[in-house]
Amino acid sequence: LASVLLSFELIAQNYDESKVPSYILPDVLESQNKMKIANVKDWESIRRPEILALFEENVYGIMPKKFDNSNFKIKNENKLSMNGKAHLKELEISVSNNNQTVIINLVLFVPTRAKKPAATFLLINNRGKNNTSPTRDTISGFWPAEQVIDAGYAVAAFHVNDAAPDDKNNYRNGVLRLYPEQLKADNGMKAIGAWAWAASRIMDYFEKDKDVDASKVILTGHSRGGKASLWAAAQDTRFAMCVTNCSGNTGAALSRRRFGETVKVINTTFPHWFADNYKKFNDNESALPLDQHMLVSLIAPRPVYVTNASEDLWADPVGTFKSVKEAEKVYELYNVKSGLPQSIPAINMPFVKPPLAYHIREGKHDMTFYDWAQFIKTADLYFNRQ
Ligand code: GCU
């Protein structure tokens, strides 16, 4: 019966622009006590921390900052992988707290010919581990390591299941063993919070690896992984740039539009992703003290690359673009001009200029060689590598 009800609800989702309810977005530049935020100082000291706390409390849950210790171990290394083009390192990043240890496996390729330390793309892999094969027996557009290496970047990935299995019955068996108090709290983090936390632990490692330029790490995620890449980059300002590919509901798309996936649907289908408090907003988006444009804004003035796919209405392309446009206000505070067009660009017409880059690719919900080629262009522009 539950699955019948659920599929009924999924069918009932709105894909008709004329049925989008009218809504008022919370003003990213007005604090909760109605103060207008007009400069970087007030943004960074008042409004930014306030918004971070709102997302922690109401959506993604608390992000624990402390742990007892961490260790990095090289499991395997090949200085001549990819026909000598890359130096492969396979690492175990183990983090302990509360007498528990979690191990996050990292695959890292560093370009042999490019200048070191290298700017690095880090993927939060939410799909099959074969996509990030260290032996390169599978080559896929989801993590096109050769393409990234050829562009002169290092490329790394970890799998979400190492941090929190993506399953409502097993998500506790990972990072959450280190923070059992989170499981009891209504604002405790769950799987997506744990994935974001793991990305920061990898950043801790990058800061120690002389081949990686930790000041030039581009955190990348697709869909549920793109929700996590935004949340991680919002929290952890060490990430220089964020890519959020087809991240949709509770990623880059505006929740209040209720177009495609809604808060109720996501909380019902994936009860293990967000804090329990988020369920209060099921069919009640207008009560949220935030919307997803504010998550993008938290990354300012660092660049964010946002994408959609033409056949992926579930992720609400129009609502995603509107959200990115709203975030421009915060970049303006920093005097970083966004050149985004007024309305959503045509299909396959990428707008790659930082700080806010966007494209809608023809085709399905996926991350492809084409998408990565655009991310690389934005990173090249931002890091002056073109
Ligand atoms: C489902 C889910 C989305 C998610 C997507 C994915 O479609 O409803 O919110 O983004 O899976 O991760 O591919």
From TrEMBL:
<dbReference type="InterPro" id="IPR054579">
    <property type="entry name" value="GCE-like_dom"/>
</dbReference>
<dbReference type="InterPro" id="IPR029058">
    <property type="entry name" value="AB_hydrolase_fold"/>
</dbReference>
<feature type="signal peptide">
    <location>
        <begin position="1"/>
        <end position="12"/>
    </location>
</feature>
<protein>
    <submittedName>
        <fullName>Acetylxylan esterase</fullName>
    </submittedName>
</protein>
<keyword id="KW-0378">Hydrolase</keyword>
<dbReference type="Pfam" id="PF22244">
    <property type="entry name" value="GCE_fung"/>
</dbReference>
<dbReference type="GO" id="GO:0052689">
    <property type="term" value="F:carboxylic ester hydrolase activity"/>
</dbReference>
<feature type="domain" description="4-O-methyl-glucuronoyl methylesterase-like">
    <location>
        <begin position="145"/>
        <end position="333"/>
    </location>
</feature>
<keyword id="KW-0719">Serine esterase</keyword>
<keyword id="KW-0732">Signal</keyword>
